[in-house]
Amino acid sequence: MPRWFHSSSCVAYKKTIEQLTKQHPGVLQNAHVLLRVDFNVPLSKKDGSITDDTRIREALPTINFLLKHGAKLMLASHCGRPKGQVNEAMRMAPMAFRLSELIGQSVKIVDDCVGEKVDSAASSLRAGEAVMLENVRFYKGEEKNDPEFAKMLAKNSTIYVNDAFGTAHRAHASTEGVTPFMKHKVAGFLMEKELKFLKSAVSNPVKPFAAIVGGAKVSTKIPVIESLIEKCDKIFIGGGMIFTFYRAMGLSVGGSMVEEDFIPMAKDLMQKAEAKGVKFFLPEDVVVADEFKADANAKTVSAKEIPEGWMGLDIGPATLDKFGEELKQCKTVVWNGPMGVFEFDQFSKGTFGVANVLAEVTDAGGITIIGGGDSVAAVHKANLSSRMSHISTGGGASLEMLEGKDLPGVAALDDA
User: Which residue, 36, 20, 63, 14, is CA-closest to 176?
Assistant: First the structure.
């Protein structure tokens, strides 16, 4: 276990796969195990091949552990949004083939996730073998969390392992509905890792604790900012949402995007932070453009002097210096959302600059948690993934956990 965890910050409240095998030696041998993974990987529009197998690789420790301990492994996942219908472009076969390559053994494929074909595949499985079930979202009962569908999905297994943190905030049949029909339901290694870091950040962070919140819209981040005000010492705001805060301060924002309905809420958040003694940082300068294009004319201006007709697309260099100086004093930093339109090179300096600062925080012994979404893509693009303490696999799930919410897919697991 990494040295920075307090003993209380572990997943002490939910049983893990390792704890199960220690409490019940041999429990996995010849047992049918339903493993919920998140193999919702990006596929090529040209030939349907996998363009990024990160999610499959991240599930390997759990898969290898189960197979090594003699489980008869049944893998369940979704891919895309087929809306309760069979969609040939969203079948699980490419993921099964890739998994076969990664683990060096054949993974059987069944073109359904419930019913006679699955029953037959389950009965022919031997210890240490795996079968990939078809996309669970081909059935409407998955997202509706239909008890009958969940019962059919659970039919052949006695042990349930959830390693799909990215879908843990959804009460679906494969994440929550199957659990009443299982003798044991535990967290896989990836789920355990996610909970260790995110639960620790929420309940017992090493101080000083900072949060960086970015992205285009303040409306989608209000609950997490409200929650973080209760826990953080410092909050840094970036991305398109800063202009709604500027308007709440009475500043002119030129042609920048503003969510008019949320101006009062932005003002309220700043007041709450002040009342709590939380340092609330907004950019002091911004990089503005005359249009939303990669090659637009751009210049850096004070946040108080955004020209009419120009739109802000990144935080400025003075802001990056200030954010960096303050962040380097912190022991725990959570980051969700980019600082600007980092897909365009000339508006990427703020986002990549923050990523570099966080790498330095990690190097100095701090804990850095990248909480899903575009900030993960930015860290990967900056080639800094290895210099972050934890990169979360779940966007929505990460946000809800940072808000302090109970995730249905986690709540349904056995207590430790």
Answer: 36
